[in-house]
Amino acid sequence: MSEIAFEQLVYENQAVLIKVCNIFCKIQADKDDLFQEITINLWKGLPSFQGNSKLSTWIYRVSLNTAISKSQRKRKNLIRYTERLPEHNGLISNEDAVDEEQIQMLYAGIERLKPVEKALILLYLEEHSYSEIGDIMGISEKNAGVKLHRIKRKLEKILQPCTNLKTSEA
């Protein structure tokens, strides 16, 4: 594959790469480093891509595996979802504020997951089927379902104190 064709491939799939970087990194410089590392791994691995899966599935797999490996090497750079979502010039309704708060709590819960669990929940939240998740992660569809079920239960336990606090305040 030519460099120009590779650049086009990265451009067409940059949304996936950016999502993975945002889930695994907090600081923009770390996100940039991870993006570059993923791109390098895609370039190096492309000749070995055999076409047994969709190219987009392979790209996701390389991206997540790179992010997981990097986060295991450098645990201190795992994402911290403490940043607030940008304000919308006072146009946020009370209902939107509650939604934003729930999203922030979910991200805080996801932050406490192991890197592989983060990857699985990211794919689930992007509404990939268990079959697609299995293909991307290199596991069976059934194993993907079992792992996601466990991750959801784990997130419920993590978020339980937050939801108990909210119901006692009401």
UniProtKB/TrEMBL annotation:
Q: Does the keyword rRNA processing apply?
A: no
Entry superkingdom: Bacteria
Q: Which UniProt keywords apply?
A: DNA-directed RNA polymerase, Sigma factor, Transcription, Transcription regulation
What residue stretches are annotated with the RNA polymerase sigma factor 70 region 4 type domain?
104-155
Q: Which InterPro entries match?
A: RNA_pol_sigma-70-like, RNA_pol_sigma-70_dom, RNA_pol_sigma70_r2, RNA_pol_sigma70_r4_t2, RNA_pol_sigma_r2, RNA_pol_sigma_r3/r4-like, WH-like_DNA-bd_sf
The entry assigns this protein to a family as follows:
Belongs to the sigma-70 factor family. ECF subfamily.
Extract the PANTHER family matched here: RNA POLYMERASE ECF-TYPE SIGMA FACTO, RNA POLYMERASE ECF-TYPE SIGMA FACTOR
Name the record gives this protein? DNA-directed RNA polymerase sigma-70 factor
